[in-house]
Amino acid sequence: MTGVAEVIAGVHRDEWARVVATLARRCGDLDIAEEMAAEAFATAVERWPVDGVPPNPGAWLTTTAHRKAIDRLRREARREDKHKEALMLSGPPEPAGAVEDDRLRLLFTCCHPALAVETRIALTLRMVGGLTVPEIARAFLVSEAAMAQRITRAKAKIKAAGIPYRVPSHEDLPVRLAGVLTVLFLIFNEGYLVSEPGEDAVRDDLTTEAIRLTRLVRALLPSDGEVAGLLALMLLTQARRPARVSANGELVALAEQDRGAWDRSLVDEGHALVRGCLAAGRAPGRYQVLAAINAVHTDALDVRDTDWSQVVALYDQLVRLDPSPIVRLNRAIALAELDGPEVALAELAGLPLEDYHAYHAARADLLRRLGRSSEARAAYDRAVELTGNAAEVAYLVRRRDQLAR
What we know:
The chain is an all-alpha fold. It has helices spanning 2-27, 30-51, 57-75, 80-88, 102-110, 117-128, 133-139, 144-160, 173-192, 204-220, 225-238, 264-280, 286-299, 308-321, 325-339, 341-348, 357-369, 373-386, 390-404. It contains 19 helices and no strands.
């Protein structure tokens, strides 16, 4: 029984998006697709322990969900158009995997620019990731009712606005794909350093799900450099996860991490993706450059071996692609290792980041290195005030208190 339950859990993880996507393409209704997929999995929970796991679980689930959708539409066939809709579904469904880009269509639908970013994230986690509404609500610290309403409104907007269930045209694909990658990156970042107070420092369920969904996009768009870059960036960042929080719950800065604890398999995979991007010979995008920066960091077995000149050169390239204040902040932090803290501090002057905790944390570290302790203490105080993550607060408080001693 336990073995079957584990199989069902694995099949849910692997097949949920495929079943929902196939059904959504056939009936054009995300509500029906989601509900019938859930019913199919519920039927599997009842029947597989008795009948055994079918040879092709995905095909079994797709067929079961498809039949349930037909029954549902026929029961609701109070109008002729509903009846026609049901008849359209009456043909045999394609076997799971026959139309591989169904999941890609679903992902682009969930990440449509007509939806607010937070709504895109929630809808993607539910429809493509298969997370439950309570799981998504917990991840973003809202009530289950509020999250359910958010997802319901999003599906209703997709239906009312006639948002097409398809991959964008070749001309629109770069812009639309960028939106999908942004959603996946935001999911990963929220998991890697949880922003809300009172929560765990890291949410492995969110980082793992973001990586899984990005692998899915990578499998469907294997030649896209930015997809490969984002996956590499996630893998190289996740590789450092075992060394990122100390035993007493304090954030461990990159320079202080035990590099022997890093996940070398993830590092190797990330490096291979970065090398593949370079070998393609195309001008890199933002995620590829970020991945390359992380590749330089994870290539050094000791922080003293870091090639800071290469890191700064990559940040120079990134600034040309994305001249945002946060990118310039990170460039200044790297520049401090080459030209010293005073030069980096001058780079930070005037950046519009007064409400960003990492800006004040960076200033505090630079001021500390210059021996300007009272100014550093004030910067630490401001960083602590703006930080929600408990592990990061513990790290900043310790660094601040060391100044007093």
